[in-house]
Amino acid sequence: MLVGSIAMMIYKFLQVGYGKMGKAIVDNLDAKALGLEISIIDRNISHDETKRQYNNSKQLSKDFEPDIFLIACKPQNIQVLIDEYSEVITSRTIVISILAGTNISYFSSCFPENPIVRLMPNLGAKIKKSTNLIYGENIDSSKKELISSLSDSFGKTIWLEEERLLHAGTAVAGSGPAYYYKFLSIYSNYLIKAGFSADDAKKIAINTAEAAIETAHGEDFSSLIKQVSSKGGTTEAALNSLNQDSRLEKTLDASLNEAVARSKALSN
Question: Most buried of 74, 137, 211, 252 (most Cβ within 10 A)?
Answer without folding.
Answer: 137
